[in-house]
Amino acid sequence: MKKFLPVLLLVALCTAAKAQDDPGAYMTSITNAETNMDKAYMTYISAAAHSSRKRKVEKLRGNAVDAIVTCQNDINYITPYKGDNSLRQNALNYVQLCYKVFNDDYAHIVNMEDITERSYDEMQAYLLLQQATNDTLQVAIARMSNAENSFATKYNVTIINQQTELDQKMEESNRMAAYHDKVYLLFYKCNWEDNQLTNAVNEKNVTKIEQTRSALGKYAIEGLAVLDTLKSYAGDFSLAGACKNALAFYKEEAETEVPKVTDFFLKEEAFDKLKTTMDAKSSDQRTQQDVDTYNKAVNDINAAVNAYNQTNNDLNGGRTAVNNGWNDTEKTFIDFHTPYYK
């Protein structure tokens, strides 16, 4: 590799020198450098959507960072056009921002994945960071576009605004991500609350159950209202539909099923107190009424246990169904709507 470097360097310098005589060629030399960087970025985005191999995806992110460095080096070799450094400097600013985003911000986003299961707020912060990173890139792209238009106007270069296939794929990926995140937060908010509810049930903490049940019902109703006004994505309503199914289950769980669980725990607590009182009495101290009351309570608690077990089975089955339905639909949705690019 090293022995070919002087030849490559000579080519780069010759290209830059030729561009000095033609403002259009000068702009093209900068655009070509940026295009190679964008290609590496889109390859990374495509792999992240279509591949489950994390090492491969991370390697491609590294390749995108390398492409940014190469782009910066290419632009550095381009001298100012007739002493005008405005376009070149704007290009360098843009590329340097891209490096920060992919080398620093995206690395931080990847690290945040480990904490997103702790709370809804942290998941929301994670997605907002992703969106803020994308927004920063969009602002930088717009700034670079303005610099190109100003340069073209100054030197009488006609720009043909023709969107490339790469441009279209990048825009489509951004639109899909924004739509997905909006729906996903509705699902995640209820799903996370449902996990807290499961923990409270396992702890037999009636107070916590009631608090979590109330929050789950509230979030499910709010989410369903949002989904009722949400349009499909490119004619595909599958993701929103899977979310709607999940939220309908969580609403039914909170309003109808969980009260049965709470009622059982209260009955169980009352029976345990009665049993403790009964056990404290010797056989000759127990009246017939005590025996009749206790026997009836045994029958009632046995029936309550059967009902509770059935409710638990129904909830666990429903929970598994909505989670599997969401996961499968989400994977298919992202895979279908993220453009392939290599």
Morphology call = rod-shaped
The fraction of residues assigned to DSSP E strands is under 5%
Helix fraction bin: over 70%
**What's the β-strand tally?**
0
SSE order = HHHHHHHHH
Distance between the termini: 24 Å
Q: Which quaternary structure do these chains form? A: single chain
Q: Strand count, sense and closure of the main sheet?
A: none
> What is the radius of gyration?
31 Å
Low-confidence stretches: 1-19
Report the mean per-residue pLDDT as an integer: 83
Based on secondary structure, the structural category is mainly alpha
Can you tell me about this structure?
The protein is mostly helical and 342 residues long. It is built from 9 helices and no strands. The longest helix has 50 residues, at 288-337. It starts with a helix and ends in a 5-residue tail after the last helix.
Structure in a nutshell:
The chain is mainly α. The protein has helices at residues 5-19, 23-50, 54-77, 86-112, 120-154, 165-203, 206-229, 238-280, 288-337.
Features:
342 residues; mainly alpha; 9 helices; 83% helix; disordered N terminus
Write the layout of secondary structure elements.
Layout: H1 5-19, H2 23-50, H3 54-77, H4 86-112, H5 120-154, H6 165-203, H7 206-229, H8 238-280, H9 288-337
Helix pairs in contact: 1-2, 2-3, 2-6, 3-4, 4-5, 5-6, 6-7, 6-8, 7-8, 8-9
